[in-house]
Protein 1
Amino acid sequence: MTLTIYTGGTFDLPHSGHVNFLRECAKLGEVTVSLNTDEFIADYKGKPPIMTYAERLGVLAEFRCVKCDTQHRRSRQQTCDSGSSTRHHCYWLRLG
C-alpha cells in the first residue's frame, strides 16, 4: 500500500529548500500538495505573492514527486485543517 503524504505551502519563488523538502516527502509516499491561494497568502502574510497561483501551480506540476494538488483557501484563523488530510486518505501530514 502506498502512503499519501499531505503537505501544504505557498511555494512562491521556489528554491532548493522546496525541492529538498518535496523530495524527502516523496521518500515516504505519494505527495499531495495543498497550494495556498493568492487570497490566502495576501490575508496571511499581508501582501500578495510574487508569483500567481497559476504560475506556482505550473512550477509544482513539473515536480515528478508531486502527484496531485489541492487549493488551500482557509482563512488565517483556520490554517490547521485536519479535514483536508482525511479527505485525501492521508497517513502522514508533513510540514516544512
Note: The beta strands are 4-9, 30-36, 66-72, 92-93.
Protein 2
Amino acid sequence: MPPAQTISWSGGRWWKPPTRRRPQRPFRPSYVAANAAIFKKFGGRFVVRGGRFTTVEGQSRTRNVVIEFPDYETAIACYNSPEYQANIKVRQPHSLADLIIIEGYDGPQPS
C-alpha cells in the first residue's frame, strides 16, 4: 500500500480495498450509506478513507480505503455477511476493487 501518512495501529485486522472507479458513480450514495450500518454492526471503523497517497513502487488504484475490525474473524464475517454480499452487488457494475483482509501484527518491531 502506498504510504499517505504514518499511522500507528494496535492489533487490529483490516480490509484494504483499493478501487478504480468507473466514470459514472450513481451507486455511491446508497452503497456508502448501507456500508455504514454494516461496518458498524461488525465493529468496523475507517482508518484510511481516500486521502493523498504516493505510489513509490508498483501500481495503485485511484482510491484506497483501510477499515479496521476488532479481529480477523470479524472482518471475514463482515465480508461474508448477507448484508455486505447484497451491497457489493450494487457496487460491482460501477467499480473495480481488489479487497484483501489482513490480520494485524502487535508483536515486537525489528531493531
Note: DSSP finds three helices and six strands in the chain.
Protein 3
Amino acid sequence: MNQKSSLIQTLNFVPQVLTLDNAEISKVEGVSNDRIQKLIELAFLAPDVIRDVCEGSQPLGLTTEWLLRHAFPTVWHDQREMFRPL
C-alpha cells in the first residue's frame, strides 16, 4: 500500500471513531487495537503534511511505517519541525 492510500484509509476511520470504540473498529477491520490507535493518530497530522503526502512531496523519510513506529507531537508546528529533516 502506498503513502497516499494509507493516509486515505486512515482518514476513513474518523467517522467510525465517532460511533465505535477501538475494539469494535479493530474487529471490523481485522487488525489489532494498537494498530487502530496508531492509525487514528495519523488523522491528526497537520493539513499541509497530509497534503504533501497525498501529492508525494513529503520528506523522503516520512513514511507511514515511520509514523506508525514513532510518537509525534499533536501541535502542527512541532510536527513540521520534527518531519523536516526526515
Note: The helical segments are 3-19, 22-29, 33-42, 47-55, 64-69, 76-83.
Protein 4
Amino acid sequence: MIVKYSPVFNSEKMFVYEFENDKIIAKLFFLNSKKWEEKEKDTFDFSKLGDGKLESVNTNLSINPILNADRKDGILTVTLIKLHGIDAIYEERYPADEVIV
C-alpha cells in the first residue's frame, strides 16, 4: 500500500493511523485541556477493492480522513488527511509518502 498525505491545519484535532495489510485504522484525537484524548475511531478495509478508483468512502468519524483510494495493477494507493498544528515541523506540514508492507 502506498500512503500519501494531504496536510491540513487543525490545532485541536489529530489523526493517528495504524496499517494492517489493506486495512487502515484511523483514530481521531481531540485536544482537551492540553491533553490529547481519543474520541473517534473507524476501520477502513480495502482488501476487496479491485483495480479502479473508489469514488467515496463512508465513515462514522466527524472528519473523513480518506480523500481517495485506488488500486492499479494490484497496488493500493490511499490519500489520507494529515492534521497538524500551528507549530508543526516541516515534516508534518509537508509529509512524505509512505510504502506500507
Note: Residues 2-99 form one domain.
